[in-house]
Amino acid sequence: MEKSQDKTPLFEALHKERYSRQDLIRNIETLTKRKLIIYFTNTFHVLGSINRNDIAPFGDLLMDSNRTVDLDLLIHSGGGDLDSAEKIVCMCRDKCKSFRVIIPQYAKSAATLITLAADSILMGYTSELGPIDPQISITLRDGKMLTRPAYSYLEGLKKIKDEIKQDPSFITTYLPLLEQLDPALLHYCQQAIERSKRFAYKWLCKYMCKGDTKKAATIAEKLCDVAKYLTHGVVIDHKEAKDELKLEVEFLDPNDKLWQEFWALYCQYEVDIRKMGVNKIFESNKVSLSLT
Hints:
15% strand
């Protein structure tokens, strides 16, 4: 957070990408009259998911905020840890008067849950949310990690039980698989599904669906519905988010000046995060932090 007079020409040249992004942030704040913070992740990086390491940087981003601030969070994330996502939500909501989430392109899974805690969501034609069904990672015997939807483990067991019930001879076919099933894992899957629903319901009730618990419950249930959303990466665009899910979505046309500013900022982060070789950037008009 250097003062302009403290920056030498060489230092400013070395950090020109950062200062260019922060100029764009200031331009957007002039248009919106709101404070803008950025949480931008490299969705192709193994360490790019939402996790506890994000809490301290968010603390810096929110340090000069207070209950009188109208806060915008521009987020680009494929999701991650639910508990860390809720901590981020608690921090943002505690340091603002109103909270809006900007999605220039991609906010999936736990990042979708963060958006559900906002008063409203700003989306464009490139924006997408995703289902909130939790994903469970297990370590296989060969040491490799396998990630599957929690529902898949439960539905897979149900399918086996149904087939054995119809034809008991299938027990010999499925016995090797059943011997590998961990009851604790199945219980964890059930808990994870319930945790995700409760997260969505709790924050929707507080803000976006305030006074309408039935609407909040319906949205939470739909976003966890694997029969409706067959894959975790399915696209929920602005039309579906607003018209079908009934979320508070503000759509900006591609020709809208504000949208063009957000898109220019997104493109700069998309290029710079790979050029810098980092997995995350946290930024405001004063703060600039990155994680490797």
